[in-house]
């Protein structure tokens, strides 16, 4: 079809669906851990990066299975079945109603959901990692030797399918997650967010099977990674056996393998190990890079996502692939030529060093954003402390004295104080003093709790325990009402009923999502009904709304801000994404090109495996730091990672300065020439021997 083997269209569609499935699932994974399984941030981050590390360790297994045993087609087929089952199991594990027998909105047996989720993720890691090194190579196998142009176009289409799948899924699945679903109770729809990627993976598998009769299937020809490993292992063992001084030293420790392996394999292995040595510092870059899906997504949950349309925290990850599409041609077409015109020798290793530095600066930017977020975060009482705030719903000013002789606070009419912190054991009572009235309220407070004291001159003061110990999560808002009428009032807001409130009594908090429209507040009382449209709530706020009076059927209310909304906008994450993406462009793209340019033609798979291994190790670094870190502030952890990468960047720059670039083609040509000469000598020798035999 258009000069292409028809089979490659099935492979491209298969790759698009598989990448949609993987990135769609991965986009919402950290929030699933935090909000559905209720894991704290550090543990959720550690499990997330354990999963990503597995995804980059299993490609080595997949490559060995494909090259040494099953072949690429069967490896892709069998592991895609495992992959599809994993996605389905993860989706089922996220169904809240599976164990919610008492229908209270929370799973009754969290262990079932955790077990299903972990089984699903292990199967997904085995599937996605196992097929990773096979699919693109299998596509390349479909072309004849004279179809180099078509093969090049195929790889462009292949990587376009990867980016398209990643981009679309990162838009779609967070929106699916944000919708509400459920049989008994409505909550965020993780089964749908995981279910759609599972369906796409099933479609990917079906498409791949449909094209099976058209594929060119090359039989397994042995895995070069195993050959290299055996060569290195034999050299080490042989050197150990001949460690005494009576044996002469050899120029390179790998030369000890010459007793069993030919010179060309040893020379090629030397080139590969030389590059792999440079890979040692690289995991630190990936330790920072892959935190886009964990720490940075968690950071976005505490930010304002109002861009005119509501952007979900896990959708901010889309900035990276969008910037990649923009930055790669810009850097290749403008930045590198400009540097070349300035006569700067910008070698591949120097580019990679710059990439590390930019990634380090991205985390400095993330730390600065986190500092601003922390400034707006509420401070809750610690152990041994309680917090109390005052709301004066009367028409006269009042002074409140905290006893015994702790402090005195003036409160204006229809105003509220902020939360004041006291040692729970010290605060016993308070006096409310009006112009002609002095009232005492005894207090029995619980530690680590917030309280609100509402008062007015003609009614007994009401002390309310807020029952809020943290800022509302997922950008939700908490709203409650207090009745400032002298008679009972029935309050509703949209479809949410707050019940009949007695004078100065307070309802429980109810949860409302951020939306671009006001809510209708309605107060029903003996004299009739009054309504008013609410203010527009932000993200992560809490309000106490006082129902004051009614004028011409319009309800008059006063808003008291219990917890301020998220004020730092998600757009402030764009600079850190920009720096990290620029770092990726000059580090990752250049690193792969450098590796391929320095590797013998038959050893590229070894370097690909080594490159993927650096990603896995980088994620292991994150889970170690997340598990062992004693830093109480998130910005400090960002600075720690930035500093670690900066140190590694300097080490890498020093290592790179000692590296000598080689041309593998020249070395291979030299060995080829030597082999020809040896063959010619053997042939000449055989001819002379035959001539001598004929004379006899």
Name of the CATH architecture of the largest domain:
Up-down Bundle
Spatial gap, N to C terminus = 65 Å
What is the gyration radius calculated from CA atoms? 33 Å
Beta strand count: 19
Helix content: 40-55%
Q: How many distinct folded domains?
A: 4
Shape annotation: elongated
Low-confidence stretches: none
- CATH class term of the largest domain: Mainly Alpha
Number of helices: 16
Percent of sequence in beta strands: 15-25%
CATH fold node name of the largest domain: Growth Hormone, Chain: A
Strand-pairing-aware structural class: alpha+beta
Give a brief rundown of this model:
The chain crosses the membrane at residues 43-64, 76-95, 110-131, 152-172, 192-211, 271-289, 318-339, 351-371, 577-594, 606-626, 638-662. With 696 residues, this protein is α+β, with helices and mostly antiparallel strands.
List keywords for this structure.
696 residues, alpha+beta, Growth Hormone, Chain: A, 4 domains, 5-stranded mixed beta sheet, 4-stranded antiparallel beta sheet, 16 helices, 15% strand, elongated
Describe the structure.
With 696 residues, this protein is an alpha+beta fold. Helices cover 53% and strands 15% of the residues. The chain has helices at residues 7-36, 41-70, 72-93, 110-141, 148-178, 190-210, 224-241, 263-278, 283-289, 295-300, 319-341, 348-376, 574-598, 604-628, 634-657, 664-695; strands at residues 180-181, 187-188, 385-392, 398-403, 407-411, 415-416, 420-423, 429-433, 438-442, 449-456, 459-465, 477-483, 489-493, 496-501, 510-512, 520-525, 528-533, 542-551, 554-563. The strands form five sheets. Strands 3, 6, 7, 10 and 11 form a five-stranded mixed beta sheet that branches. Strands 5-4-8-9 form a four-stranded antiparallel beta sheet, with no helix packed on it. Helix 12 runs antiparallel to helix 13. It starts with 6 loop residues before the first helix and ends with a helix. The relative contact order is 0.12. The model has no long low-confidence stretch (mean pLDDT 87).
């Amino acid at each position: 079809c258009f000069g292409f083997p028809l089979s490659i269209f099935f492979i491209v569609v298969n790759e698009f669906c598989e990448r949609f499935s993987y990135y769609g699932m991965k986009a919402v994974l950290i929030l699933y851990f935090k909000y559905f399984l209720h894991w704290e941030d550090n543990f959720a981050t550690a499990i997330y990066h354990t999963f990503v590390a597995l995804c980059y360790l299993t490609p080595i297994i997949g490559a060995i299975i494909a090259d040494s045993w099953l072949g690429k087609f069967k490896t892709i087929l069998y592991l895609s079945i495992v992959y599809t089952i994993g996605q389905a199991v993860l989706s089922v594990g996220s169904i809240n109603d599976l164990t919610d027998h008492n229908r209270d909105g929370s799973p009754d047996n969290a262990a079932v959901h955790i077990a299903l989720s972990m089984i699903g993720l292990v199967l997904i890691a085995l599937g996605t990692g196992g097929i990773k090194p096979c699919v693109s190579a299998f596509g390349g196998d479909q072309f004849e030797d004279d179809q180099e142009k078509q093969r090049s176009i195929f790889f462009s289409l292949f990587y376009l399918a990867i980016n398209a799948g990643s981009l679309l899924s990162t838009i779609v699945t967070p929106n699916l997650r944000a919708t509400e679903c459920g049989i008994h109770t409505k909550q965020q729809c993780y089964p749908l967010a995981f279910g759609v990627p599972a369906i796409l993976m099933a479609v990917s598998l079906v498409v791949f099977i449909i094209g099976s009769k058209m594929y060119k299937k090359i039989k397994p020809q042995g895995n070069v990674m195993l050959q290299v490993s055996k060569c290195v292992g034999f050299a080490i063992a042989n050197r150990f056996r001949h460690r005494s001084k009576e044996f002469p030293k050899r120029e390179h420790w790998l030369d000890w393998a010459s007793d069993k392996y030919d010179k060309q394999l040893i020379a090629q292995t030397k080139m590969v190990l030389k590059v792999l040595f440079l890979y040692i510092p690289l995991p630190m870059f990936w330790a920072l890079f892959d935190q886009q899906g964990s720490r940075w997504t968690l950071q976005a949950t505490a930010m304002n996502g109002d861009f005119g349309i509501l952007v979900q925290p896990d959708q901010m990850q889309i900035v990276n692939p969008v910037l990649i599409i923009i930055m790669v041609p810009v850097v290749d077409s403008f930045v590198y030529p400009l540097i070349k015109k300035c006569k700067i020798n910008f070698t591949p290793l120097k580019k990679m060093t710059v990439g590390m530095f930019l990634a380090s600066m991205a985390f400095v930017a993330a730390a600065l954003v986190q500092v601003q977020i922390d400034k707006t975060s509420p401070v809750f009482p610690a152990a041994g402390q309680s917090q109390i705030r005052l709301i004066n719903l009367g028409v006269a000013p009042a002074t409140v004295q905290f006893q015994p002789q702790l402090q005195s606070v003036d409160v204006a009419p229809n105003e509220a104080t902020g939360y004041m912190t006291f040692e729970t054991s010290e605060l016993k009572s308070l006096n409310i003093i009006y112009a002609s009235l002095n009232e005492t309220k005894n207090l029995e407070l619980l530690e680590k709790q917030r309280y609100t004291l509402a008062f007015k001159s003609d009614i007994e003061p009401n002390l309310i325990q807020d029952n809020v110990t943290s800022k509302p999560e997922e950008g939700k808002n908490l709203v409650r009402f207090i009745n400032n009428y002298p008679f009972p009032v029935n309050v509703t807001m949209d479809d949410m009923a707050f019940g009949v409130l007695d004078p100065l009594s307070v309802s429980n908090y109810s949860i409302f999502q951020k939306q671009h429209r006001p809510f209708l507040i309605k107060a029903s009382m003996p004299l009739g009904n009054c309504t008013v449209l609410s203010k527009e709530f932000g993200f992560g706020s809490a309000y106490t709304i006082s129902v004051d009076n009614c004028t011409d059927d319009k309800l008059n209310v006063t808003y008291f801000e219990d917890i301020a909304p998220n004020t730092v906008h998600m757009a402030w994450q764009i600079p850190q994404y920009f720096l990290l993406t620029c770092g990726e462009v000059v580090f990752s793209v250049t690193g792969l090109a450098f590796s391929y340019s320095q590797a013998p033609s038959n050893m590229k798979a070894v370097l690909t495996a080594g490159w993927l291994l650096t990603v896995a190790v980088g994620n292991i670094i994150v889970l170690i730091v997340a598990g062992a870190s004693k830093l109480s502030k998130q910005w400090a952890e960002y600075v720690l990672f930035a500093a670690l990468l900066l140190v590694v960047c300097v080490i890498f720059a020093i290592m790179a300065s000692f590296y000598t670039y080689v041309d593998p083609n020249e070395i291979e040509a030299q060995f080829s020439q030597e082999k020809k000469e040896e063959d010619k000598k053997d042939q000449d020798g055989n001819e002379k021997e035959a001539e001598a035999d004929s004379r006899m």
